Amino acid sequence: MTRRATPRSLRTALAAAAALTLVAGCSSSSSHSEATGAGSATTSASKAGPAPSGLQSFYSQKLEWEKCDEGECAKLRVPIDYAKPNGATIEIAVNRQKATGTKKGSLVVNPGGPGASGVDYAAAADSIVSAGVRESFDVVGFDPRGVQRSAAITCVGDAELDDLLGADPSPDNAAEQKELLAADKSFADACKKNAGPLLGHVSTEEAAKDMDVLRAALGEDKLDYLGKSYGTFLGASYAEQFPKKVGRMVLDGVLPPDLTMAELNAGQAKGFETALDAYLASCTKESDCPLGSEPAAGKKKLQEFLVGLDDKTVRAEGDSRIDRLTEGWAVNGIAAGLYDEASWPGLTDALRGAMNGDGTLLLASGKQYAERNDDGTYNGNIMQVINAVTCLDRPAPTGGVATYEKETKALAKDAPTWGSQLAWAGAICADWPVKATGEAKPVKAAGSGPIVVVGTTRDPATPYEWSERLEKQLENGRLVSYDGDGHTAYGRGSECVDSAIDSYLLEGKNLPEKTTC
């Protein structure tokens, strides 16, 4: 199961919901080093095929595994800039959960983000893949470049990040617009000052190159891969760059690489609106629903509540630094509750409390979403690096305030609640200190084997249409369609979905062009 994407906190990004509850598998951190002696990997003759020109020293690495909190950990050395392989390098943190039975290969996994920890994700292997897959595969996760243990990008301190995440994501007037844009620029300036040279080299394309170095270091001729949410973008980028190295690849909850930033924001706004409608239909059937007994009226009540947080003080307790519920934290808390229908009762309780003047539960949901602790610290750096990756991967909107206002109006009909929240999500990239290196373009992965794409019909963060979109682009795509709620489908209770994915991963079964569950 995977995670999310909303307003100011996640700024058009996607990550894995499972990452909220995972236990860290390694505690070591990575640092910048020179290419002459970095990392705990040694070099050896690789059995995984020839290396690209100039990258032989990286492709010939042999991972040196050490026991860590859960499983085994190692470090992989990669260049900061693949165009300058003899320049500075970083170390990528890797976690391995060994197969419980006879090993057939290595399954590399990524939970999303950009910015979620693959090390933590792999450490929870028993909960992310079936027992059969665990028996047959080493489950391997890595923190992508700039993330957590892999030369983490940090732009601001915890208190400054609190202010950014709690701010109003849907400005209602010129003064609020000015405040939002000033906060975005302040964060971008801090990244320019504090993030170092890696800031310009955390793109998805570069992370996919790291993944091929990892494949070689694992001794695998081809990459077997399970990516969820943003992890599908990473997998698709890999497939486009290295189609002949694609093994069994599953992309669940798709972020198509050809989406413009405007399309990304609009699609997610509509996706969250669909998920909200499903939640409201359920909640309003209950006698204790704080939004009333009629979905349309309940939606209007929720919208008015969020707007009212600009002026109304709703207290919150239990946090060392935050003592009130702001619109930014409330929106994040609501988004968290929409990722899985199992979270709906908790969302109802949180909304009931907030609408009665106690925002403690809804703030707690928002903080969990942001991987923030009650003592004011953050478990990782997803809320910082997410912007760095997003702003590199696709060009920012042009036209300034007029563009964001136009987007807000355009989304008002289909996404009256979430349109205003996400229309401004790309603004942070407008003042980004590094020019985008990526562009919105389709992925064909010509010459690859079958790639399985999974879509959920009422997925809030990655609308079903996006899975259809990528599958149609791929030269050899297969679509597994799940009629359900929540973000992603594999491992979330559908026997039909799980059976199809397991037969593909374990047996190499060639699925039909479309499987409907």
UniProtKB/TrEMBL annotation:
InterPro entries xrefs: AB_hydrolase_fold (IPR029058), Pept_S33_TAP-like_C (IPR013595), Serine_prot/Carboxylest_S33 (IPR051601)
Similarity field: Belongs to the peptidase S33 family.
UniProt keyword annotations, A-Z: Hydrolase, Signal
PROSITE patterns named in the record: PROKAR_LIPOPROTEIN (PS51257)
Limits of the Peptidase S33 tripeptidyl aminopeptidase-like C-terminal domain: 416-517
UniProt cross-references to Pfam families, sorted A to Z: Abhydrolase_4
Transmembrane segments: none
Protein name: Alpha/beta hydrolase
Keyword Amino-acid biosynthesis: no
Signal peptide span: 1-24
Listed Gene3D superfamilies: alpha/beta hydrolase
Start and end residues of each stretch annotated as Disordered: 32-52
Any one Gene Ontology molecular-function term assigned to this protein's record: hydrolase activity
UniProt keyword Ion transport, yes or no: no
